[in-house]
Amino acid sequence: DKHGEGIERIAFTAVDSAAGAEEIRARGLTPIGPTDFERPVTLPNGTISAAKFRTFMWPTAEAPGGVRIFACQHKTRETVWIPELMQHANSAKRIKQTLIATPEPAQEAAHLGRLIDREPKAEADGAVTVPSGGDRADFVYLTLAQLAKRYPGVPLAGLSERG
Questions:
Q1: % of the chain at pLDDT higher than 70
Q2: Is 145 left (phi over 0), alpha (psi -120 to 50) or beta?
Q3: Residue 76 is part of a domain; what is its CATH number?
Q4: Number of folded domains that form the chain
Q5: HSE-CB of 120 using CA atoms within 13 angstroms
Q6: Is residue 25 included in any domain, yes or no?
Q7: With 110 labelled, which of 34, 66, 79, 125 sits at a CA distance of 20 to 30 A?
Q8: Which of 105, 83, 84, 86 shows the shortest CA–CA distance to 94?
Q9: Strand order in the sheet with 121-122
Q10: What's the pTM?
Q11: Hey, what's the torsion of the CAs at 19, 98, 135, 78, to 10 degrees?
Q12: Where are the beta strands (DSSP E) in the chain?
């Protein structure tokens, strides 16, 4: 409510959350976690199982573009990555880009790039993209004005200047 519409947090995939938290610590940052938790999941056959996770977060002050980042290790992939549960009414298969509004795209993209070891790439319109690696979504930092030019007609009322 304080910041308007938009993304507040982004999850990365972790193979080993404990090792990921230690890697962040080795860089001089204080990670949050790793933390274990679980939640019940109703499977397609009607039975209930537990989806179990171990997560760690970068420090909350490290929020490029106002977006905090964390990583999630799926301990029970069989209860989460189920084809029947991954079908969306809008037929989406994946997210290709995450757009993050900020008055300073280059600075915020460089910040994320340092946190995840990726090199930002400037785009012709002044936006800056940080690839996340693999087949995952790229992060595009841009101003609200750049967002309006890229997507004319999309209402931006309610969007925060950062996030």
A1: 98
A2: alpha
A3: 3.10.180
A4: 1
A5: 22
A6: yes
A7: 34
A8: 86
A9: 97-101, 138-142, 128-130, 121-122
A10: 0.88
A11: 60
A12: 9-13, 32-42, 48-57, 68-74, 97-101, 121-122, 128-130, 138-142
User: Tell me, what amino acid is at 85?
Assistant: L
Say yes or no to pLDDT of 83 above 90. Answer: no
Cβ-contact 160, 2 below 8 angstroms: no
Closest CA to 150 of 112, 124, 131: 124
> Residues 36-46: pLDDT tens digits?
999 999 999 99
- Structural domain that includes position 61: 9-150
Q: What is the pLDDT of residues 10-63, one digit of tens each?
A: 999 999 999 999 999 999 999 999 999 999 999 999 999 999 999 999 999 999
What's the CA gap between 91 and 162, in Å, rounded?
29
Structure tokens at 86: 């991954």
Helix (H) or strand (E) holding 5: none
Distance CA 58, CA 60 (A): 6
Instruction: Establish if 100 belongs to a structural domain.
Output: yes
Please state, in angstroms and rounded to a whole number, the distance separating the CA atoms of residues 123 and 142: 10
